[in-house]
Amino acid sequence: MYADYSDKNPALGAFYARHIETLASRHDQALSEAGASHAVIYSGNPKLAFLDDHHSPFKPNPHFVSWAPLTNLPFSYIVYTPGEKPRLIYYQPHDYWHVVPGAPDGYWTAHFDIRIVHSIDEIAAHMPTDREKCIIIGEIGDKSLTFGIERINPTTAINILHYARGIKTPYEIEVLRLSSRRGASGHRAAEAAFRDGASEFDIHHAYCKAVSHTDPELPYSNIVALNQHAAILHYTHLDRHAPDTFRSFLIDAGAQVHGYASDITRTYSYQDERFKALIERMDSMQMAIVDKVQAGVDYRDLHVDNHRMLAEVLVESELASGDPDTLLETGVTSAFFPHGLGHLLGIQVHDVGGFMESASGATIDPPSDHPHLRLTRVLKEDMVLTIEPGLYVIDMLLENLRGTAAEQHVNWKTVDWLRPFGGIRIEDNVRVLTNDRQNLTRDAFASAT
Ligand code: GLY
Ligand code: MN
Ligand code: MN
């Protein structure tokens, strides 16, 4: 079925009005706690490369994107004053070197008092006159872009907004559903290219074509890893040549819709049945973990539970021997699975607020023996997070087990068998519900063409 990723999508438009109301009330609270009257949210601007006259790809301020699906509107501002329609100072320069933003269009426009400006000099006239009652939120490289506002990113307000962003609005859930959908279509194309014997570079391009993204539009650099490359957690090299022998394929790639990311990983066996069976075992383990996601669960517990489940997989697949407690305590499971179970997902791929205990800024540390865990909160309804267990042969980590109590629990012969396949990761994007959950990614694969 056709998916509408545009800002004309009537279904998104229907949700957007409520989204704006929720944002307004979050900003009311942030302003009140910060003792200010206006929030001025700066979209950001492209940055020049050192000693050069070229800009890096523009990355918008996520606070700006949370207000409107405007991911490519630098030098613009949203001015929010409680009780008033938000004002959008929309920068549309006279510029014959670059494509300039077109006329405002889409479901979001009716919700703003839009002021189009053609030069930076015109902006000040649209700012609140009582600058001392303003806070500005954004990355300000040049002081002149604050227009005299002195309170930049006050922590009290930022903490309130970041904590709140952990809970997605119905609009955001729909956008995230679409970004999983878009990503799933890319994953299908990538798998087909892999089956055709393409190089990592060509698989990457098949993916980008299917999701209709340039590289900078991807929410993060694609991980397209054939064979042993799958063991490099952030492998983004993109080999230009196809390998002589195809064994395995791990792809960690997302897509974006209106600035919201999906973050999806799949692993495939080319034709080896034993590796295929291990992927299937990891897939059922991943689904069993997803089935535990629901409001009230402490994500740290899920992560540790997953280590126990992985211990069982290691024993069944003859990669290790021993009971789960021993395999956890001796560090065997951590050597095979050295990253966190997942993270919050939203405008940022590793979305803000994963460690926040409250809006006051208090944080929850990851367990000391699991320092890479990026989500330590108790789950609440309408959080969206990833579940991404993995199992890899990373020699640097496995070698550390030699000469320790763990060594005898590892079946080194099976490790040698698995090494050329690199590893396995399976990653879905999941919405938390009360006593339930929605797997946005599995739903997306089920409906992707
Ligand atoms: N793609 C980065 C991650 O899975 O967190
Ligand atoms: Mn990922
Ligand atoms: Mn992830």
Structure in words:
- With 449 residues, this protein is α+β, with helices and mostly antiparallel strands.
- The protein has 2 domains: 10-164, 3-Layer(aba) Sandwich (Creatine Amidinohydrolase, Chain A, domain 1), CATH 3.40.350.10; 170-447, Alpha-Beta Complex (Creatine Amidinohydrolase), CATH 3.90.230.10.
- Helix content is 33%, strand content 14%.
- The chain has 12 helices and 16 strands.
- It has helices at 10-34, 62-67, 155-165, 170-195, 200-211, 273-290, 299-316, 324-329, 332-336, 395-399, 412-418, 440-447; strands at residues 38-42, 77-80, 87-91, 113-117, 134-137, 151-152, 223-226, 248-253, 256-257, 260-261, 264-269, 384-387, 390-392, 423-425, 428-433, 436-439.
- The strands form 5 sheets. The protein has a 6-stranded mixed β-sheet. It has a 3-stranded antiparallel β-sheet with strand order 7-8-11.
- β9 (256-257) and β10 form a beta hairpin.
- The longest helix has 26 residues, at 170-195.
- The model has no long low-confidence stretch (mean pLDDT 97).
- Bound molecules: glycine and manganese (II) ion (MN) (2 copies).
- Residues 220, 252, 263, 349, 388, 427 line the site of glycine.
- One manganese (II) ion is lined by residues 252, 263, 265, 388, 427.
